[in-house]
Amino acid sequence: MLATAMGYRLVRGFVRLLLWLFYRRVDVVGAERIPSRGPLIIVANHHNSLVDPMLIMGMSPRRLTAVAKAPLFRHPLIGPFLRAVGALPVNRREEAGDDPRKNEALFATAIAHLRAGGAVLIFPEGRSQPVPTLLPLRTGAARLLLGAEADGGGHGVTLLPVGLVFQTPGTFRVASALVAVGPPVDVDDCVAAYGAEPEATVRRLTERLAWAIRAQIVEAEDQHTLELAGALERAWREERGGAADAEASLAWRREVMRAARALTERAPDRVAQFRQRLEAYRARLSESGLSDAQLGRPYTASVVTRWIVGNAVKLGVTLPLAVWGIASHVLPYALTRVAVAAMRRTEEEEATDKMAAGLVLYPLCWALEAWLVKRVAGLWVLVAFLLLLVPSALIALAWRERLARVARQARAFGRFVLDRRLHADLIAERRALVSEAMTLAELART
To answer: The domain at 2-214 falls in which architecture?
Structure first.
């Protein structure tokens, strides 16, 4: 037990580091709803292969016992991590066939864990998929909770829905993620009715759970549509002068998508025209190098001068270490991209594949580079190489992101000089879009 607890802490710390490196930002909403003790089942939508449990384990203050599909335990890279965190293997229908006994041990272990006050993480869709919508849920989570309460001991298992929402999910240092923890699902009536109507109660609780998860995500027909909703939310926020708030942003996007679905049948042409205008605005804004927050800022000579000098100094001071970091990591970075492309697996596994390939290729390349450095330059240069390996990589990431921001802003300066009406035109279009969005939302409610 001690070894497993230590293994979990080590893996969790490593997971948090990987997520911090890969994602531009990870927001968490409602983490205070996770009870500090007592039996707990966390259920979430499954959008992004192994990254989903990594995100939830990384943000949860409690140790979670994850339920993972059995074939992953045979994976040479992933299997050891799953065993280190004490995960439980589940045989899906395609793996278990017609033998229900293959999962009896899983349920018995999970139920005993819950009755002892433990926490279980499960993805009731049964598989991951790239479309930001919720698949029909399997009944395992409901059966697990009702089974844990079936002895009449009043264990008080908490059923907590979690929503995962991604932006550009597979793109290194561009992707972002939102983890939304909802209020506990009411299960008391189902626990009371389970003995008399077990199958009907399982189905009822599963349907209730589906609604609870849907309330924490933004469902859309595809990832592009979801990102359009995000662009509209940023425009709305700037027009209203409000500060960025992850929870309010999530609620706003969810409401927009509900309105869009309601109006697609009633006024499809109007919805299609609005979508085209939003896409055109988003493309023009991107081409200008501006963000919604930068629209309307005065580009006076003093502002531009201070900006140029400040960024030039910061980029210049960090350039030597950034070059060292890029040179040390360009080989494993390129090989990781080649390896992921060669895998040719599903879209929702892209981020997982990049992390998994990187875990193998980066240490191998570092070892090769260290050997070459020692052979060519000697022991002391090798020591310097090893000491600077991680700091130079982090500086290179920060330098690259700053350079990208500088390039976008320089483009914005240039466009502003060439077209003095650019800001005014974009602001006018933004206001028109937000106004039309509010009109459509009101129409959807009538």
So the answer is: 3-Layer(aba) Sandwich (3.40)
